[in-house]
Amino acid sequence: MDYKIYFEIKPEKRFGQVVLKGTRISVGDVLNWLANGMSREEIISDFPELEIDHINACLFYAASREGQLRIAS
Description:
By secondary structure, the protein is mainly α. It has three helices and two strands. Helices cover 45% and strands 8% of the residues.
């Protein structure tokens, strides 16, 4: 999945956080909603500008970032 097509970073929007293009919804918002038990369907119901691909892109982004973390020893 080319998740980058769904995101943008603009300093004037949400203090430069990664947001879904055309919205003020950050990747962190979506991940937080999922972590707090909201289903994909509930998120889309609350935010109809989103689609399943947006949510999947957020999950893919988080998984990609996690794979880049290293612990110094």
